[in-house]
Write a structure and sequence with these properties.
With about 160 residues, the chain is an alpha+beta fold. The chain has one domain. Helix content is about 25%, strand content about 35%. Strands 1, 2, 4, 5, 6, 8 and 9 form a 7-stranded mixed sheet that branches. Strands 3-7-10 form a 3-stranded antiparallel sheet, with no helix packed on it. A hairpin with a 2-residue loop joins strand 1 and strand 2. The two termini are about 20 Å apart. The N terminus is likely disordered.
């Protein structure tokens, strides 16, 4: 059963996104395996800081640093409280300086892992990402876990994926 769940999670995460890169639209993948809740976030740099190139000014450098700090914040995601999930250290990847520009697109990628003391109570994940990034208007969210697979379009007015 555990092998089947892992394959299901991998298959879900390997599916092509509806749009490879759209300004204002991010992607979030959720994988649940026993007590482990893994959340992968991909956010267009434009939605985070307003540009997709190497920062040119001190103000742009500060905006990029603030965006990095915001996507690394574990309170960006709120699993069902009854599941008693505790965050581990997140991983954030920014585009390499100078690589984004012209017709190229750049994304911020972040991975968050939570360990849940009561995984059976895990029924949803809410995000506060729209409060941090006003240029973000949609997150295409997908999840895979013991209860199956699902997807939802998260917006500022509907920031919860539930199952």
């Amino acid at each position: 059963m555990r092998i089947a769940l892992i394959y299901a999670c991998l298959a879900l995460l390997a599916l092509p996104a509806q749009a490879q890169h759209a300004h204002g639209e991010g992607r979030m993948d959720i994988a649940i395996d026993r007590e482990r809740l893994a959340i992968s976030l991909e956010l267009p740099l434009d939605a985070a800081v307003g540009f997709e190139r190497a920062p040119k000014t001190e103000k742009e450098k500060a905006a990029l640093a603030a965006a990095q700090q915001a996507v690394a914040d574990p309170t960006l995601f709120m699993p069902t409280p009854a599941a008693a999930c505790k965050p581990e250290a997140p991983k954030v990847v920014l585009p390499e300086s100078g690589k984004a520009g012209g017709e190229q697109h750049a994304d911020i990628e972040a991975s968050h892992v939570f360990r849940c003391a009561n995984p059976a109570a895990l029924k949803s994940v809410e995000t506060t990402i729209f409060k941090s990034f006003k240029r973000l208007y949609r997150l295409e969210a997908r999840r895979a876990g013991p209860g199956g697979q699902g997807a939802a379009r998260l917006t500022p007015k509907h920031p919860v994926i539930a199952w």
